[in-house]
Amino acid sequence: MIPSILPTYNRAPLSFVKGEGVWLQTGDGRRFLDLGAGIAVNALGHANPDLVDALTTQANALWHVSNLYQIPAQQKLADALVETTFADSCFFTNSGTEAMELAVKMARKYWHDRGQPERSRILTFEGAFHGRSSAAIAAVGTEKMTKGFGPLLGGFTQLGWGDHDGLRAAMAQPDVGAVLIEPVQGEGGIRPVPDQCLKGLRDICDETGTLLIFDEVQCGMGRTGRLFAHEWAGVTPDIMMVAKGIGGGFPLGAVLATEAAAAPMTAGTHGSTYGGNPLACAVGAKVMEIVSDEGFLEGVRARAGRLRQGLEGLVATHPQAFESVRGAGLMLGLKCKAAAAEVVQAGYAEEVLTVPAADNVVRLLPPLNITEAEIDEALSRLDRAAARIGSDAG
User: Is the pLDDT of residue 72 over 80?
Assistant: First the structure.
């Protein structure tokens, strides 16, 4: 008999009843140090008092009215995003997947309204992950994501990671209208795109008039030590997808765009019943207020340096388990020699939570406000977990 919850998840045998900061507690009182943060969602930790206050204050006033009406909390968050980023306009969604769908529509509508509807092709890259909707899996194109779900939405071409010649050749094709890329791949194994490559990509998009779309669903909102990861390269996109950390645990996403890219999306071209509701935007505005502060981001960079240095030490101490450290800010990956799943399981035994990724990588995505003492405790637990690999301790 099929379970009451559709069995699409391979869940760990863990259930949590309470969270506080970087800690999660099970029903039997065990306390786990959470280095996954709900897959980079709980940017300010569990039950953050500032976010709880923002949510409850809004909940006691107004939950939902739909986008038939003006929503002051939505306007406040939109103004903050436009003031702080490259964008001139934004649209609120409930998830990164929904943001992906709009980004695709926006890029194609842009060329339609310019009288060049043939420029509908979007270039993507090996190792990418943009969600699990029909457009998102078509964009990625791997058998793992697409098998059994055909016919797929057309108009996507996948390029090899770091294949500059392939990119140049593809960009010369007359039907290419946009390039979609994560400045730091998350699900793909914590692979940052080098700054010079992002700059070169911006240059070639400018040369050809092609739209540049950044997917910062996982790497954005302070995760790399800047508000958005592309800021390190000193370039900006035309369209950007945001989600995960922007809601601090409350479902929220957004598409940010320049005026030129956004202009074709006129009344009736897109919509959402829940997107940008007062509850989500009240929390998102508080997250933005905290995370966009330069002092806070300086702290993220300092804590990231401490964590990375400690992880490099673990790699040296446990060569049977780890190969290297990769990533940026508090979006780090341990490239494993042992199976990544084994490392995650060993962490469960030491009550520390990590997240597996492709390329045999374990992701470390802690809350951005993790303390130095908590970093040291995390490293201690990871050290004990690594000692289990290849030993009889497990």
Answer: yes
C-alpha closest to that of 118 among 176, 178, 204, 180: 176
Instruction: Give residue 163's region: left, alpha or beta (phi > 0; psi -120 to 50).
Output: beta
- DSSP-assigned letter for residue 153: P
The set of residues, in sequence order, having a beta carbon less than 8 Å from that of 116 and lying 6+ positions away, is: 177
Distance separating alpha carbons of residues 248 and 48, to the nearest angstrom: 9
SS3 26: strand
Bridge partners of residue 328, in order along the sequence: 331
Decide: 191 and 184 in contact? Cβ < 8 Å: yes
Are the C-beta atoms of residues 334 and 361 closer than 8 Å to each other?
yes
C-alpha to C-alpha distances, 394 to 31, 186, 380, nearest whole angstrom: 19, 28, 17
Q: What are phi and psi of 122, to 5 degrees?
A: -120, 130
Give the residue carrying structure tokens 């010649």.
165
Q: In the chain, pLDDT over 70 holds for what percent of residues? A: 99
**Per-residue pLDDT averaged across 96-104, rounded?**
98
pLDDT at 391: 63
Per-residue pLDDT at 138 exceeds 50: yes
pLDDT at 271 > cutoff 70? yes
pTM over 0.90: yes
* Spatial CB neighbours of 272, under 8 Å, sequence gap ≥ 6: 67, 91, 92, 93, 94, 98
CA gap 384, 394 in Å, rounded: 11
SS3 content of the chain, % helix, strand, coil (to 5): 40, 20, 40
Q: 361 Cβ partners below 8 Å, 6+ apart?
A: 189, 190, 326, 333, 334, 335, 336, 340
> Who contacts 333 (Cβ-Cβ below 8 Å, separation ≥6)?
189, 190, 325, 326, 327, 357, 361, 362, 363, 364
Q: Where are the beta strands (DSSP E) in the chain?
A: 16-20, 23-26, 31-34, 89-93, 121-125, 156-159, 176-181, 184-185, 191-192, 211-215, 239-242, 253-257, 322-328, 331-336, 352-353, 355-357, 361-364
Q: Kindly tell me if the per-residue pLDDT of 393 is higher than 70.
A: no
Q: Per the structure block, which two tokens stand in for 385?
A: 């977990």
